[in-house]
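Appendix B. Extra example for self-study. Work through it before the problem class; the solution is given directly after the inputs so you can check yourself.
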Amino acid sequence: LNISKKKGQEGRKMDRWVRPTTIIDSYKLKQALGIEVIIASETLQTTGSFKFRAASNLVSHVRNKHIMTASSGNFGQALACACAMTGKKCTVVMPATSAETKIIAVRGFGAEVVLIDTTSQSRGQAVNELALKYPDAYIASPYDDPWVIDGNASLGREVAQLRPRPTVVIVPIGGGGLCAGIIQGLKDSGCAAEVIGAEPLLANDAAQSLRAGKIIAHDTEPQTIADGVRTLSLGRQNWAVMKDHMRTVIEVPEDGIRRAVRIFYDLVNLKVEPTGALSLAALLEMKDSFRGELVCCVVSGGNVDPAVYQTLIGA
Amino acid sequence: LNISKKKGQEGRKMDRWVRPTTIIDSYKLKQALGIEVIIASETLQTTGSFKFRAASNLVSHVRNKHIMTASSGNFGQALACACAMTGKKCTVVMPATSAETKIIAVRGFGAEVVLIDTTSQSRGQAVNELALKYPDAYIASPYDDPWVIDGNASLGREVAQLRPRPTVVIVPIGGGGLCAGIIQGLKDSGCAAEVIGAEPLLANDAAQSLRAGKIIAHDTEPQTIADGVRTLSLGRQNWAVMKDHMRTVIEVPEDGIRRAVRIFYDLVNLKVEPTGALSLAALLEMKDSFRGELVCCVVSGGNVDPAVYQTLIGA
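Solution. Structure tokens for the complete assembly:
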């Protein structure tokens, strides 16, 4: 593998752009919910989601001058930004149905965007085709790559530093990279908080996998409003971490996701994308089970098309 | 004056809810503007605006069990929250045209709301009438009170701690309480950054005052979209601080305010109310004059009616 354990000078310079997560202890939210809840928001992270942690870590360590990925948007944008910061070429395969904001943002960093119809071709197939065209490119999985888990672990270490320590951490699940990273980071820090996944009911492969004890995949990409978690299945490396360390997965109906976005708007002044609202939606779904806990809800990102957001905050 | 220099136990407990300002060093914003700019956002402050700094400081020091104010919303909400935290009664006089979100929020903290028609009666008149009804109440000015300036000064001290230090701080101006507080806080910390006011062109009494060398007042409340700065004039105590220490006031057209709200949405994932966007709008208005500076834009708050925000983020 064309990978180095040491970061180059450019990689170290890029580290300054990894923003510590924004901890929000909201009086109004706590009053409204009657639950001790803390928000760890990645909406203000560079490129607007936790994905920059993974992407910058990967770009720092990989020696290739060209990096390719398939991403519904946030990892694509993060990778494009990290590549722009370090002078690398970047190619991002995106579903044609991705949020327009996300496509524009990836292109804004000078990356090449290849749009595909995910009903006729999987993202993996598209990437494999491109790999023939670009034999020197490194193919980065948005979620199933050791540098990705390692990059995301920094968020787990930050959550572990909260005082008082949370007893439960709720994390949105798509491919599982964030969840596996957080489990790893909490473990690194000796924090015993339990990790609970939050997943749309329409895209509940992680919940199914946990019940089956093995990875269960969707046949086609689920069309949940949480466009950041429209993955076919968990990544294998993530599953290896998650299967033993994730207490449960809460499945959230679409209406619950919308409601959580609106609560963030009304009570916290936080602009959250539907995927990012999954953790609060999960908390609301199983509210009574969290009494007596100190819950940390991880908000994975805030990039949402204005047209979608207008609908979400409508009466 | 029924005021104590010492805070009671409840006041000290309330201090934990004064959130340090959220500093945002946005790569995307800097790239887009080509200016070295840092955001100091009070949108995540308790009750969603900087006003909680002033209100909690005032409530901590005033001994009266009932506090009254006239406020277009953010100070009212902050005061209502601080009173609820300390078990005091609160009455807030609000223009009937205030953002609905803000009225609901004030009532949500158990405060009494008195709505007035500002075209037929000034807020001051309405408060004076109520003072006869409630002779034991302390009447708090949302901006012209020593405890208000003193509370807001904490934000200036936080901005002064930024490294590298900003050379210019741009601050939205309504009654001038935030601006005077920030000037005071920067001075306390020995920070030589220049302070520039940001004001809607439709409500440019501070700019007029600075030109005239004395307080100039509007006859009626100006109908700018920035509803947090629809004040008739600067407070006298604020003016005393501002007249010698504010470099200039940038007057911003309504379209510039809308544009700044949208830029915060697109590039920073920050939900900002029109008043809060004044500082960025001012920067955009006079962009070339800020080259070579390190600019800190203070975002005063984020409470905005969903219906208004829907329009603001529309294409």
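Self-check: Chain B has 13 helices and ten strands. If your reasoning did not lead you there, revisit section 3.
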